[in-house]
Write a structure and sequence with these properties.
Layout (H helix, E strand, L loop, with lengths): L1 H27 L3 H9 L3 H7 L23 E2 L11 H7 L13 H12 L19 E7 L2 E6 L4 E7 L11 H4 L2 E8 L9 H26 L1 E6 L4 H7 L6 E11 L2
Antiparallel strand pairs: 1-4, 2-3, 2-5, 3-4, 5-7, 6-7
Helix pairs in contact: 4-7, 5-7
The chain binds flavin mononucleotide (FMN).
Length: about 260
């Protein structure tokens, strides 16, 4: 009994010291944001491995073998949190604009845009946009002049999907092909657990996408970019180009660019 008590006391002291040391190290390095930064460094390969689980914070993308050879993963910049104009002014000024300068978005602007859309804000992986039952079923595909990428929020990267200029396939309206960026919001219905009713899943996707699209609209207004949310998409053609699985549904798009 005495030995047991001694072992318990030694183990308690050891755990106390170890936990205090761990807490001190994390605190010293910047606390939760340090842990979040570390999580953000999870490599692309880990995200790809998680693909088949269709669970939160994973990116629903084709396997590595189908990765386009001539495009590489783009490491995004850390989003600039000190940006933005007063919210009430931005709300007053938000409008759909369909004319864009023929100029790609800078890496920093693209990084800020995607984080504003649906980036990670908390250590448990929650996002700038709310989602019903926190199911986080959306991936954002980015159609640009050189190819199509998917946003990987954990690693803060753009993962290439297809090489080539598919902007004319990103929507039915003429202005779409002239814009530097089209964001395509794709719901992975496999991530919507708790119901097998396809209509219920689509309804949830339709609700959730509004928050992401509004984040984008407000960010664009705040930054002085032009943007328009769009339903006019040839979903069948674009789904093939994006190599989507049957459970992945294109719900909405936003065209974005600098003002002319
Ligand atoms: C769900 C949704 C789908 C839309 N689809 C299109 C579209 O396919 N093409 C387009 O030019 N504008 C589209 N719009 C933009 C609307 O036409 C626009 O929001 C509306 O005219 C009001 O103008 P405002 O956004 O400047 O307030 C869409 C807007 C929403 C909310």
């Amino acid at each position: 009994m005495k030995t047991l008590k001694k072992a318990f006391i030694i183990s308690f002291i050891f755990n106390f010291i170890a936990l205090s040391l761990f807490g001190f190290l994390i605190y010293n390095k910047g606390g939760i944001s340090y842990l979040a930064d570390k999580a953000a460094q999870l490599p692309e390969l880990v995200q790809r491995t998680w693909l088949n689980n269709s669970s939160k914070n994973t990116v629903s993308i084709p396997p590595v073998s189908e990765k386009p050879l001539n495009l590489t993963t783009i490491k995004l910049n850390t989003p600039e949190m000190d940006k933005g104009r007063p919210l009430m002014q931005v709300l007053k000024e938000r409008k759909s604009e369909r004319s864009y300068a023929d100029q790609p978005l800078s890496l920093q602007d693209l990084s800020n845009l995607l984080w504003a859309a649906d980036g990670i804000t908390r250590a448990d992986g929650r996002r700038t946009a709310p989602s019903a039952r926190n199911m986080q079923q959306f991936d954002i595909y980015i159609v640009m002049k050189n190819g199509i990428y998917v946003y990987a929020p954990i690693s803060n990267e753009l993962i290439p999907i297809v090489e080539g200029d598919y902007r004319k396939n990103a929507g039915l309206d003429a202005y779409v092909a002239a814009a530097p960026v089209n964001l395509i919001y794709v719901a992975d219905l496999a991530k919507l657990k708790g119901t097998t009713d396809e209509n219920a899943k689509i309804l949830l996707a339709n609700l959730d996408v509004g928050f992401i699209a509004e984040n984008v609209a407000l960010f664009c207004t705040s930054e002085g970019f032009a943007s328009v949310p769009r339903l006019s998409i040839d979903k069948d053609t674009l789904s093939k180009i994006l190599k989507l699985r049957p459970e992945q549904k294109i719900i909405l798009a936003t065209t974005v660019g600098y003002r002319k």
